[in-house]
Amino acid sequence: GRGDGRVLTVLLYLNEQWDRKNGGEVSLFEAEKGSSRSAGWSGRWVNVWPEAGTIIFFLADRIIHEVRPCFAPRHALSSWFCGQPSDFGGDGRQEVADECSVVE
Q1: Rounded distance, CA 78 to CA 11, Å?
Q2: Rg (CA), the chain
Q3: What is the mean pLDDT of each run of 10 residues along the chain (104 residues)?
Q4: Which helix (H) or strand (E) holds 74?
């Protein structure tokens, strides 16, 4: 998990007519086999561009992600929900599956 307590990230992009040559995408790793906590895991990177109306929800403590360099002003509403990861403490809560959702 993350050391800063972020469990869920929500991003809403506000950039009209975004030119992809300006970068600024968020890259999310989509596991296809196993998980980042096991040997032999594999998957692919999915890029989400900061285009107006795009909203992203992902589990920040579970999904490997990075924000790529940006070469123009980029505007977004960002929200982070903090708490304990779903597998914290073994208190019987159901573990959340590794997944990400992108809506355009």
Answers
A1: 5
A2: 15
A3: 79 97 95 68 92 95 92 96 66 44 46
A4: none
